[in-house]
Design a protein that fits this description.
The chain has 16 helices and no strands. With 317 residues, it is mostly helical. It has one domain. The radius of gyration is 20 Å and the shape is globular.
């Protein structure tokens, strides 16, 4: 349906040729824009309904009192399936600390939650297929678990801002929600309006960059610079991804275009993971609860873990 709409607008009404660079770029832009925005609305609405059943406080209670290994498994799993974005980092961090959950476990949750975004996962399946989605989720879970375990060995408690320890748990308790069907429906619609309204510019930017790559970047050039035989492409992809102000949803069209042009799977995954897990907005918010040494260690551990994931997948695929 989306491809037919793009064919109609660009090739039939627009009169552009499918073999032209502009035609290919605009076709990619129209097809991915309509497809992603429709899927975003549907997925975020369903996730909004899900959020009425699972609050941050419930997540915290699931993890509290478990052994460290089991708590980390719970944290990574819940981080992957709960629809909390980086804007929830501070209240979740404070709530986990006040609940007595080890900071290494807390970091595992904070890594998994934005990286394995449920909206992005569904979009990945729809745009790139099950195989790449499985690779992405498996790599994200591994990075979250191992990254949290490594950070715990450095005793990050020493870098938590003093005010965090003084806050009572009640401060981060969410207000009661209307649990009727009408209340859940209104909350889900509000989530669609708020989230789509916040991220649509970055989605369009991601699609625009992906369209430019799809239409104008020669396949031989992409295969050479982003191929799996180029050892430096993975670290470069991670370094490029860190300062980008986007999210996993916005970078999917770029990943789609890169893979279509012959970029290596590991390099593409590394770019996606660095944008999602080490984004500047999340780092800025985390700085409010973690001092610079802890934040820099967090970035260093994640950067190395993502680079190793990228190299591994480039070797295996």
């Amino acid at each position: 349906m989306f491809e037919q709409l793009a064919n109609l607008l660009i090739y039939h009404w627009g009169g552009l040729s499918p073999t032209s660079q502009l035609g290919a770029a605009l076709h990619f832009f129209v097809m991915d824009t309509t497809k992603i925005l429709v899927m975003l609305v549907l997925i975020i609405y369903l996730m909004g309904l899900f959020r009425t059943l699972l609050s941050p406080e419930k997540v915290r209670e699931y993890i509290r009192g478990r052994s460290t290994a089991l708590a980390r498994i719970f944290a990574v799993t819940l981080g992957a399936v709960t629809p909390f974005c980086s804007c929830s980092s501070i209240p979740l961090f404070i709530g986990f600390v006040e609940a007595g959950i080890p900071l290494g476990v807390t970091f595992s949750f904070l890594i998994a939650s934005p990286m394995i975004n449920e909206v992005a996962v569904v979009l990945l399946i729809g745009l790139l297929g099950w195989q790449l989605t499985f690779f992405y989720v498996a790599a994200g879970l591994t990075v979250a678990y191992v990254g949290g375990a490594l950070l715990e060995r450095f005793h990050p408690e020493q870098w938590v801002e003093p005010y965090v320890w003084k806050i009572q748990m009640g401060v981060v308790t969410s207000p009661a929600r209307d649990t009727s069907w009408r209340g859940r429906h209104e909350f889900a619609l509000g989530e669609v309006e708020e989230i789509v309204g916040r991220i649509w510019p970055w989605v369009l930017i991601g699609i625009g960059v992906g369209a430019a790559v799809h239409g104008y970047v020669p396949q031989t050039w992409a295969e050479t610079l982003a191929g799996k035989d180029n050892f430096l492409t993975v670290p470069l992809a991670v370094l490029i991804g860190i300062p980008l102000y986007s999210n996993a949803v916005g970078v999917i069209p770029l990943a789609e275009a890169m893979l279509n042009k012959g970029a290596a799977v590991g390099t593409t995954l590394a770019l996606m993971m660095s944008i999602a897990a080490i984004s500047l907005p999340e780092l800025i918010m985390l700085r409010k609860v973690i001092r610079w040494p802890g934040l820099l260690l967090f970035v260093a551990v994640l950067t190395m873990a993502i680079i190793l994931v990228g190299w591994t997948f480039n070797l295996l695929t």
